[in-house]
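Protein modeling request. Please complete all fields; requests missing the sequence field cannot be processed.
Requester role: graduate student
Desired output: 3D structure, token encoding
Chains: 1
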Amino acid sequence: MATAITEPARRIATRERLIFALDVPDLKGARELVTRLGDSVLFYKIGLELATSRHYFELLDWLLERDKKVFTDLKLYDIPATVSAAVRQLSRSGASFLTVHGDRAIMEAAAAAKGDQLKILVVTVLTSIAPQDLAEMGVGLTVEELVLKRARQAAASGCDGVIASGLEAAPLRAALGPKSLIVTPGIRPADGARSDDQRRVVTPTLAFRSGADHIVVGRPIRDAADPYAAATAIQEEIAGVFG
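Delivered output (243 residues):
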């Protein structure tokens, strides 16, 4: 397991390494949770649940107005021309990250349209997928092999990084070097918190020691009795890793 922290990783503001998954059904609930979290979270992921509401970009603008960074987790997957057009639209939104799925042509289309601010992250293998799931899908690779294959395609296509479990972060960092971003979901604090439908999970410390640049945390904060305290505890753990 890798233990070194790369130089590009050190240049990321420590308190921006925690990305909170704002997985709630509506604008009112999202705003209330962001207000409750206050200064404990600076970076928010807004994904498909809120994308199916009528207020996705209203929330995005509201977060930016409060000096928060935004990760648009939309997992775009379509023909390259359509993905290119969608990425070009998102590049004007002020978001920092955007996820895409798919083959090399889709990755290249997204990278070409992203502009200067938006960073494209390629989804490798969802953290809800276990090795037996790949076998059932007819994929003749291990999870790690598939993650590395997609990550190398992402880097070659001009994308900025990948979404991957902390279990694959160390081999990814070794394969990709220091420049590519590794953003790790499936994070569970080392306090016995349940994994739910996340099946390939790690602690915040293990993710960063393995080479991750950011972690995405949802339920352990959102469902805590005191979300502010839960987020603050994770921020303190991250500060302990990076000093």
